[in-house]
Write a structure and sequence with these properties.
With 288 residues, this protein is α/β, with parallel strands linked by helices. Strands 1-8-7-6-5-4-3-2 form an eight-stranded parallel β-sheet. The chain has helices at 13-16, 27-32, 34-42, 55-61, 68-78, 93-109, 125-136, 150-154, 169-188, 211-214, 229-235, 265-287; strands spanning 3-6, 23-26, 49-52, 82-84, 113-116, 143-147, 200-203, 222-227. It has a single domain, classed as TIM Barrel, CATH 3.20.20. Strand 5 (113-116), helix 7 and strand 6 (143-147) form a beta-alpha-beta unit.
């Protein structure tokens, strides 16, 4: 079954961590937040730890990406199993690949698994697929990320920084379908035949949890998946629903506040409901 990682604000890590199948750990919070760092350093529940490079947060803020060398140091602080190598959204696909070539050996020597997140320039599906195929053919790459940045960008969906304006409904629909489109292109080119087991990680979830059902044909390729959607929507009073996407009005676009506290119990219960909604979807698919 897919290992789902529910991303939580720091004050509620203890509340939600047991609902995870794996844990995604954000580099910028490891660096900035002692409570967050200590929680994951001391967490020993037998579930995989994946240290993300915070590319989504850095890209949305227009900040430079974390260098892979620094990610190794941060990974040691939280005793992670995998490190997401530096990637460069909306830039030529070779830049991310070249950085991975440089960093695979140091990451392996430090005792971590390698997690490669292919990227490409805007509208360059071909470049993204070349980068994915390179990773599939490379025995030193342990996990491959398909993100809510890389997939829309490759599909020509204008994923930009937080400050660049509002999204319309057509944008949301295209974004929701982008990762499915990338999987479909891989299937048509027989790239999935190169897999000998689950190797992909879906980074993020956008306009509804029913993307899990949308990607049902590809679950056998997916090792893990992460999102803040269940907890962050719930803490803001939103419950997943029975609409086609599971989230009637699409993604709750307000940026996650990782230090938010004093949330009423009713909203915490919303977040627990949303986490169970996702976990139940995965269990149902696993039983089919």
């Amino acid at each position: 079954m897919i290992n789902f990682c529910h991303i939580s604000p720091t004050p509620y890590l203890e509340t939600f961590a047991h609902l995870n199948g794996a844990h995604i750990i954000l580099a910028h919070l490891v660096e900035q937040d002692e409570h967050y760092r200590n929680f994951y350093r001391n967490l020993d529940d037998g579930k995989p730890k994946i240290m993300d490079n915070s590319a989504f947060e850095m890209f949305k803020l227009g900040e430079p990406m974390y260098p892979s060398e620094k990610l190794i140091d941060l990974g040691k602080k939280v005793k992670t199993d995998y490190i997401v190598m530096t990637d460069y959204p909306r830039e030529h696909w070779s830049k991310t690949m070249d950085k991975a070539v440089e960093m695979v050996e140091p990451i392996k020597e430090a005792g971590f698994g390698t997690f490669y997140c292919p990227q490409s320039d805007f509208g360059d599906m071909e470049g993204l697929l070349i980068s994915i195929e390179w990773a599939l053919d490379n025995i030193d790459i342990d996990l491959i990320g398909l993100s809510i940045l890389s997939c829309p960008i490759a599909c020509g969906v204008n994923e930009t920084k937080h400050s660049d304006g509002l999204r319309d409904d057509a944008y949301k629909m295209q974004r929701f379908l982008s990762r499915w489109r990338v999987f479909r292109e891989m299937e048509k080119r027989k790239l999935l035949h190169k897999l000998d087991g689950a190797k992909f990680h879906c980074l993020g979830m956008v306009d509804g949890p029913k993307e899990i059902e949308l990607l049902e044909d590809y679950h056998w390729t997916i090792y893990s998946w992460d999102s803040s959607a269940a907890i962050w929507a719930g803490l803001n009073g939103i419950r997943f629903d029975d609409s086609p996407t599971g989230l009637r009005y699409g993604k709750f676009e307000k940026e996650v506040n990782f230090s938010v506290d004093d949330i009423p119990l009713s909203k915490i219960n919303n977040a627990i409901y949303n986490c169970n909604y996702i976990n139940n979807l995965l269990e149902e698919r696993n039983e089919l």
